[in-house]
Specification:
Layout lengths: L3 H11 L16 H16 L4 H24 L4 H6 L1
Length: 85
């Protein structure tokens, strides 16, 4: 779930702060960084027409989603959901 602090950060990024040097980080570690990379990928396409940089950013987002899903699957609170499906 996106928290208010995360929403404030995303709004600040959307207002133009973002990555200062225009490069993607090596690994996306947090939900806020994931959202930042999605916004930056959009900006890469819309402002700079740089589909390759956008693809790199979205690959990082995809890796983060996979890691988050693996952590969620390993969480004992979701055992009942796994057995139900």
């Amino acid at each position: 779930m996106v928290r208010r602090r995360t929403l404030r950060r995303v709004r600040a990024i959307a207002a133009g702060r973002g990555c200062q040097d225009g490069t993607a980080p090596a690994v996306v570690a947090t939900e806020a960084e994931c959202l930042e990379q999605i916004l930056e990928a959009f900006r890469d396409i819309a402002d700079r027409d740089d589909i390759h940089q956008a693809a790199d950013r979205l690959a990082l987002v995809q890796d983060w989603i996979r890691r988050a899903a693996e952590r969620a699957a390993a969480d004992p609170i979701f055992v009942g959901l796994r057995l139900a499906s």
